[in-house]
Amino acid sequence: MTETRFLVFADSRFLGRASKELRAIFEMDGYKKFSLDYDRAFIAAIGLEPSSVIEKMGRMKPVFVEGIVPIEAEAGYSAGSFDEIVAAAAELLDKGKRFRIEVKKIIPNFEGSAKAIEVLLGRKLEEIGFRADLKDPDDIVYVVLSDKAFIGRVSRKLAYSKVIDAFRHANKEAGSAISRAEFKLAEAIDFFEIDINEMKLCLDLGAAPGGWSALMMRSGSQVIAIDNADLDYEMLSKLGRVEITDAKVSAPEEWNLLHIKANVRDVSPKSLDWVGDVDALLVDMNIEAKESAAIAERFAPLLRSRGILILTIKLVDNNIDAHIGNAKAALKSFNDVRIKKLPHNRWELTLFARKI
Ligand SMILES: C[S@@+](CC[C@H](N)C(=O)[O-])C[C@H]1O[C@@H](n2cnc3c(N)ncnc32)[C@H](O)[C@@H]1O
């Protein structure tokens, strides 16, 4: 019988839950869990081919599993020498194809950045005749550095190369993002398969400094942002025309972003009737989940039918099920509710729902 080993990533606080989810999905396929000394990943053995596992897992969409990658080789290594890793990677690669290396460290205090190690490994492979191509590789070799190195290879053509992209999210943080929060929304759009081009008008509650608003503006959406804090007007005005108001708005203006600088609790949804149908309600407020869900429910009348809600469930304590339950209970105008711990979620989860 086939048995494939996978490295499974999860936030350390959700590792037990992640394993429980996988057990439920693969109980018929001989699921076995092996712990590592590190608390951000474990090894799972599953009696299926990698592509079937990834496909089945994709369909089930587990909440707490962050990523899962097949392990094809293991190698020892030390900070000074990655020769064993290079040799193992060379076994998996084809000289006629182009590769890219992605490194993830699950030993936090290991010297050298993941990026620097990627460059070093890439060069060593090039020296022995393999062709690197960062932009358009045929294969991605991923190397996870734990007490030893776990190595695997995926073809870019396979659907599950997306899993690998997710696992390198930390390296994408540089660039023009206004806030780290922006990555959460990008991950939610990807995971919940939201057609961002359909979002012509968004309402962003708890918007400062403006990462979520910026992402929606970049896709051509008009955004009404409510927050009593300032947004990053300098960055946002590069994306379109920004208007700031104290909620006494009466008619739509020529703006791309309208910032209502007020406490959300003081803004009546009725006062926004003039905006027309909202396609997406975004709620990323740093308050308890049941309160943000109650606020989402209060603004729901502005949302068009089948419009989407993306809401951050803050886990203010360890009663995870209670926070999820309270948020769901408050969202009476919504269905198709799904929840996911996204890679950029810290002590929080992201909820997706559609207006009934
Ligand atoms: C995590 S930040 C939002 C980050 C934002 N999504 C981004 O991408 O930049 C949470 C925000 O919620 C806002 N907030 C919390 N309670 C609020 C309230 N009652 N009214 C308005 N804003 C509130 C805070 O001012 C803060 O800016």
Structure description:
There is one protein chain. With 356 residues, the chain is of the alpha/beta class. It has 3 domains: 4-70, 2-Layer Sandwich (Alpha-Beta Plaits), CATH 3.30.70.920; 73-173, THUMP fold (2-Layer Sandwich); 181-355, Vaccinia Virus protein VP39 (Rossmann fold, 3-Layer(aba) Sandwich), CATH 3.40.50.150. The chain has helices spanning 15-26, 50-60, 83-92, 114-127, 161-167, 181-191, 211-218, 233-236, 289-299, 320-330, and strands spanning 4-9, 32-35, 41-46, 67-70, 73-75, 98-105, 131-132, 139-145, 149-155, 201-205, 222-226, 242-245, 257-260, 278-283, 303-314, 334-340, 348-355. The longest helix has 14 residues, at 114-127. Bound molecules: S-adenosylmethionine (SAM). S-adenosylmethionine (SAM) is lined by residues 178-179, 181-182, 206-212, 226-229, 263-265, 284-287.
Number of helices: 10
Helix and strand succession?
EHEEHEEHEHEEEHHEHEHEEEHEHEE
User: What's the level 1 CATH class of the largest domain?
Assistant: Alpha Beta
Helix content range: 25-40%
- Write the CATH homologous superfamily of the largest domain: Vaccinia Virus protein VP39
- Average pLDDT, rounded to a whole number, is 90
Task: Please give the radius of gyration in angstroms.
Answer: 22 Å
Beta-strand portion reads 25-35%
CATH structural architecture of the largest domain: 3-Layer(aba) Sandwich
Ligand names: S-adenosylmethionine
Q: How would you sum up the major sheet?
A: 8 strands, mixed
Structural class: alpha/beta
* Total number of beta strands: 17
End-to-end Cα distance, whole Å, is 46 Å
Strand order of the largest sheet: 12-13-11-10-14-15-17-16
